[in-house]
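Milestone M4 deliverable, item 7.
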Amino acid sequence: MDCTCITALKRICRIIATLVPAAIGTHVYAQSSVQLYGIVDGWVGYERLPGNSGAAQMGGGGLSTSFWGMGGQEDLGGGYKTVFALEGFFRPQNGQYGSFNGDTFFSRNAYVGLVSPYGTLTMGRLSSLLYLQSAQFNPFYASFTFSPTINQLYSALGTYPDYPTDQGIPGGTSWSNAVQYATPGFNGLSAQAMYALGNQAGENGAKKFSAQTTFVRGPLAVGMTYQYLNFSTTPGDLTKLIKGFQSQTAAQLGVSYDLRVVKLFGEYTYIGNKLLTSNFHVNMLQGGLSIPVGVGRVLTSYAYSRDNGPLSQTRQTAALSYDYPLSKRTDVYAGYMYDHISNLSSGNTLGAGIRTRF
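Output delivered:
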């Protein structure tokens, strides 16, 4: 072999020696992870909705709606990473997917996003900002069985037509076709904004947006949310629920303060509804307590709503529960909720259950 070939081979070897460690280093640096997680919550008891007959129940979500999810991230370096989540509700009492018949498979969340030093951008199906704040500032969090806040806002207009009401937030707890930006946290202050596209001309999801900000300092937490929903006259809108429903705005202020011996919760929600021929509004107040008792907690909450709409209703909902942890992941609980809407017979829910996280 002549000197020219030997020199060329040496150069190739030096190039390979330089590139291989760099390639290995890049592979190691861009680490990724995927996790399986969720909650299984089952309860048994008695339930009677306002204006309805009661029945014994075996339900799939006393303190939390059961769900499962897969989520993960990939570190891209420089403070950047991609994230994703696929999460779906299910009903352990019968094995069906979704929190109700007709719910989508990944009904809780289904998104992909990019995290950066300048904030987080996600897109897909995302939990509503108003729903998340409503859960954060009441002691029962997101319980559709015992939380007065969640029942008055989300187990009402357009969700459970088992009782007549013109109060509540339509559109569910998650938005499809949504894009969200969340700021980095700064001295306890954070903010986020979401817009949901209609994806077809005249679709009622157009002009759906919300903004939310939270401030946390020690035991104090304060949250504010604004939400706007637009409805057109195309099939599939809420005209069948309230004739001539055009749009809805909602604003909420939530506060909590942890005194250690008791944690205080409070919420005020204003809902404005625009109809073709008239407008009406709803005011809702909620106050609650979480009291440590031994290793467990006593939870109590009361919510009151009043509207000047077509039905001119008042609604009063009160709940009391005790939650006892068996381990870091599993707890047992018992609870009672009273629910009264004017001109309807009162509702009552009484039950006990077990919840485990994985």
